[in-house]
Amino acid sequence: MRGESPTSVGGIIRLQDAAGGRDGGKAAGLAKLLALGLRVPAGFCVDESWAGYRNEINQAYQSLHCDAVAVRSSASLEDGADHSAAGQFESVLRVSGTDALFAAIEQCVSSLSSDRVYSYFGRVQNADTAQAKMTVIVQRMVQAKISGVLFTVEPQSARGESNACVVEACPGDGEQLVSGQVQAVQYLVDRETGELLSDAQAGSLLTPAQLGQLVGEALRAEAAFGKPLDLEWAIDDGGDLFWLQARPITTLFVVGANELDDPFDATQSFFTRANIGEMMPGATTPLTTDVFGEALNCGFFGLYGSCGALPKPRSECRFVVSFYSHLFIDLVMLSAIVGRVAGTSQEALEVSMFGRELSEKPPVEWIHPVYRGIHFIQYIGYVLGYKKAIRKLEKLRDTVHVAEHGNAASLYAAITDFREVYNRVTTLHMQVSSFSGALNGALREILRRGGLSNDEQMAVIASLLLHIEGIESAEIITSLEQIAAVAKAELIDIHTQTQFVTWLTSESADTRSPGLFADFLQKNGHRCVREAELFETEWKDDIHELAFNLWNMVNTKVDRHRPSVDANAWKRTVSRVCDDHPKVNRRALRMVAKRARDAVRHREYTKSILIQMTSRLRHAY
Question: Within 13 Å and on the Cβ side, how many CA atoms surround 515?
Fold first, then answer.
């Protein structure tokens, strides 16, 4: 017995009465399908105050005369014309029994206030969740033989310009398809003729009659909705087609360079590409914006939260934002440390970011000096924890990988877990970097008190931090120059780049260059030019760009011989500065300069660990 939808009474809303939208987009979509005469599983809706009419809910549930029901959310923010929120709210399938039904309803209602929903609507969609309402749909569970989704236009076609419907089908109830555990059979069907356009065999899962019914009814629904649709469907053991959901495809007409921009108040913001532009030049892909941007924000939260410098609750703070697919730093957020932590200054912050002081300065909110002093002590404790941070980073590098799995759902879960680790790695690296920044600030203060101007301070600090041994990025250049020098001496009858690449990747026993190049890739192959970009190709995966640069180095007439590095040059710089400026404290300058050089080495070392972890995440994606 199929059962009928109960009447709208005692807090129960019939599906066919939910067309107005007050009961959420999902319920409204089902109501429209019912009005068209399409088959929808019998069911009803309840609102957030459901606990006050449990008896009525139980009676409505019993009237469905079924073994199990599906319980789905229908929030006011869900399945609308502007955003779908697919997957953000809860759905519970195969619910049997009154107690289980009440628990499932409560689970759906509670999902409205989850962190996931807040992040999606507050950050991605810029919508106000505080005004949102939750309705819960209870429907007879279809015992599906085949199920899937249908798009009335191709979603990959940026503006829906393709004249094809996309039907994806899989055996069973479709849960495995949505979770990525099985791969769907896909059919492309001409909207006008019904002709099968894809290579899939029409009888491989769906019969021509079933495919025709799916497309025909979906196009009827599209005409009624007045826009392209994303629909879910199921065919039961008896061959009956049921429509489970209908929502507008919201991404088709929202195409632009700024579609992923972060919302911001232009009157209260002061953005810059300085510093972050060197680390991430050019535009970033949406995945990198999300992953790397979040990781950087977590790093700033670690620093500012540890010393009381967060100017507002963490949920409202964004240090790194994206405009037109470029990452920016909010200087207003960064400047908060000046007004909240003693020993910091706006000038030092600006010089560290831009190499100079700014004529137009972001606003700073000052707090009581006593609290600034307390925060300063907390800040010193934070930066002095750099050794512990390094040990934690090494442990994460040595023990945490993205586990390989046999299906998409488990791999996605593993990537999600690893992203938490990646955020932690970035935070620890920024803690080590903060130690280096603090020592640079100390150097500037010593030189300032000695009477040096800002330009003189910058020049001296640059000289003090030259020729630091053990810097991986510098060693990479040295290694490439060594390979180029050896190759230049060994090359015989090689006149083109293609010949050079073939020779460089061979296993010749008569020459050293291929062996040196193989050793270089073994150590540095996980690196690339834009190392934070998750879609950048690593050197070991495509050696041609690297080999091309080597080929140019081999053929240049410039003498690339580097003079031997004088590891003690910085000490002579200290002596010269102190001789020229007697007010400079020689002992303090020498001690802090030595610590600052060590700090740069630590910073670059932990940056190399961050790059290794980025490589693991890149390959997982």
Answer: 7
Output the six-digit token pair for 516: 């040196």
Reference 113, options 137, 132, 92, 127; nearest CA is: 132
Strand order across the 144-151 sheet: 185-190, 164-171, 144-151, 229-236, 241-248
What is the distance in angstroms between the CA of the first residue and the CA of the last residue of the chain? 47
pLDDT at 210 over 70: yes
- How many C-beta atoms lie closer than 10 Å to residue 523's C-beta? 13
The DSSP 8-state label assigned to residue 196 in this structure reads B
Q: Measured between alpha carbons, how far is 126 from 129 in angstroms, rounded to an integer?
A: 9
Secondary structure E strands in 96-172: 134-140, 144-151, 164-171
Contacts of 36 (CB under 8 A, 6+ apart): 220, 221, 224
Distance of CA 200 to the CA centre of its chain: 34
Average pLDDT over residues 247-251: 79
Token pair for residue 238? 């008896």
263: DSSP letter:
P
10 three-state secondary structure: coil
Q: Are 45 and 8 in contact (CB under 8 A)?
A: no
**Helices and strands in the chain: count of H runs, count of E runs:** 21, 13
Torsion of CA 496, 499, 500, 503, to 10 degrees: -160
Select from 141, 121, 123, 140 the least CA-distant residue to 131.
121
Distance CA(551)–CA(569), nearest Å, equals: 33
Cα-Cα-Cα-Cα torsion 45, 49, 55, 61, nearest 10 degrees, comes to: 20
Half-sphere exposure (Cβ direction) of 58: Cα atoms closer than 13 Å: 11
Alpha-helical runs (H) found in 307-368: 331-334, 336-340, 346-354
Euclidean distance between CA atoms 319 and 327, whole angstroms: 10
For the CA atoms of 195, 177, 30, 159, the dihedral, rounded to the nearest 10 degrees, stands at -50
Q: What is the pLDDT of residues 434-457, one digit of tens each?
A: 999 999 999 999 999 999 998 899
Question: Looking at the DSSP assignment, which residues form a beta bridge with residue 14?
Answer: 44
Contacts of 205-209 with C-beta under 8 Å, sequence gap 24+, read 205/146, 205/169, 205/170, 205/171, 206/146, 206/167, 206/169
Could you give the CA distance from residue 91 to residue 74 in angstroms, rounded to a whole number? 10
- How far apart CA 320 and CA 302 sit, in angstroms, is 14
pTM higher than the cut 0.70 = no
CA dihedral 434, 436, 437, 443 (to 10 degrees): 150
Name every residue whose Cβ is closer than 8 Å to that of residue 571 and which is 6 or more positions away in sequence: 590
pLDDT in tens, 467-476: 898 888 888 9
| 463, containing H or E segment | helix 454-464
Sign of CA dihedral 281, 286, 292, 294: positive
